[in-house]
Amino acid sequence: MTLSPIAHPRAILTLKTNEGAEMSIVMEHVSAKAAGAALDFPAEILAQLRQHGLVAGDDKQIDLDDAARVVDELRAAMRPFVGVPILISEAAEKYGFSVQSIQNWVRSGWVRVLIPEPRRRVDESDIVLAQAIAKMQGHIAGRAVFPAKPRSGRPRKAQS
After folding, report:
1. Rg, C-alpha atoms of the chain
2. What is the per-residue pLDDT for 73?
3. Would the pTM count as exceeding 0.90?
4. How many Å apart are CA 51 and CA 33, to the nearest integer?
């Protein structure tokens, strides 16, 4: 599957027949992974937004145009803050999240650290993204903003 370079994203599936002829099918509904690749945006976030009914689609497919609209809104909110360092404590106070939540997002890879020492500063645009997602989802304290990252490493111990 290739992705088209036109302004409205489309996934183009190209098939070859037994006779060697090619046939292309334009797809407007694609998997979260394909939508993430087409829009250069985390597929896990798109899937979560679809689950909350914020992006059109069903259990397995996402409407690419609707996903592009939502991603454009999120990027517009983030754009002024890309690369701006902010202390975790300042970000927590400014955006209404707990310090622990932001530290968890750093550990999970959702929030980038720009300046590791002496006092860790994160990319403010990542916190703005979290705030935008929280507002879209009607965030409730204690409810996850970012999707859980898959566990890696050693398997869990069997419970007795």
Report:
1. 19
2. 93
3. no
4. 14
Domain span(s) for CATH 1.10.1660.10 in the chain = 82-148
- For the chain, give the percent of residues with pLDDT over 90: 40
72-116 pLDDT tens trace: 999 999 999 999 999 999 999 999 999 999 999 999 999 999 998
- Tens of pLDDT, residue by residue over 3-43, are 444 444 555 566 677 787 776 655 578 888 888 888 899 99
For the 82-148 domain, the top CATH level (class) is mainly alpha
Q: Is 48 exposed, middle or buried (0-12, 13-18, 19+ CB in 10 A)?
A: buried
pLDDT at 156 (0 to 100): 61
Write the Ramachandran bin of 83: left for phi over 0, alpha for psi from -120 to 50, otherwise beta.
left
Contact 50/41 with Cβ under 8 angstroms? no
Can you give the three-state secondary structure of the chain, one letter per residue? Answer: CEECCCCCCCEEEEEECCCCCEEEEEECEECHHHHHHHHCCCHHHHHHHHHCCCCCECCCCEEHHHHHHHHHHHHHHHHHHCCCEEEHHHHHHHHCCCHHHHHHHHHHCCCCEEECCCCCEEEHHHHHHHHHHHHHHCCCCCCCCCCCCCCCCCCCCCCC
